[in-house]
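Model it.
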Amino acid sequence: MSNRTQYENDLAALKTALTEMGQSAADAVEAAMEALCTADAEAAAAVAQGDGRINNMERDIEHRCMTLLLRQQPVAGDLRRISTTMKVVTDVERIGDHASDIAEIIPHLVTVRKEGDPAVSQAIKMGQKAHKMILDALNALTSEDEQAALRVIAADDEVDYDFNAIKHTLAQEIAADPGKVDAALDLLMVIKYLERIGDHAADIAEIVPHLAGVRKAGDPAVSKSIEMGRKAHKMLNDAMAAFAAEDEAAAKAVIEADDAVDYDFNSIKRMLAAEIAADPGKIDAALDVLMVIKYLERIGDHAVNVAEWVEFLRTGRYHHENMF
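Modeled.
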């Protein structure tokens, strides 16, 4: 198999992995709403337990993205898609977290609110709208459909309206009977998580237009970013080797190497700032690269953190006093 064919296969696999993670998060929201509707504590527990799988999917996708950035030289559309994926997985992972948060509330909630409770019914309808937003946002992203993305963003107003309406209902409920405060607060937390899920779906949709930006092959900022990525990659490998060998000298070399990565970050950032100043229409394409180099800069920082633990292994001292 040629390198190009392997590269295209890896890109396709990345897209599939993101789609599967998004569907898993959407399924978790749907299952949480179903558990709320049926007052099923066991089903709610299953949603909460499944959050770890979504977290693992996020780590897998981030690894795929970094591997493509470090081993290949993506430009133009490919670079945009990889950087977009790195942004989207954070929103998708948080959607999964919020589904789990809702599920953890349900066992107590169903003991204090009666079947057919109007506020619960409203919350379930709100959840169904948020769930649809997730699916529509992911479809818009996959098809790079700006109009579909705009519809998702507009739909967030309905979810926000529901949130405020239910919040008002719960406030009146507490005013009429302060003894219901616990039941009201449980449901208030549920609708707040649903409101945040809608926000994350809208965030995903807002990324779609950025895919229209273009960076040409051989772009200097992209080339420098790839060089920076290789330095960060070497730092990470060297840090792990120093950690395994408990080699203080090698660890110090890693710490010193971080200056070069930081220099590259600031250099590329200045280059992107100059690019935007010269042509404000390039801001979206510049932001894509800026996100990539920020992730690379953080990888360098994490490599330094690993290296600094070598000192602790050897001496019992750590570079930072507040290590625990």
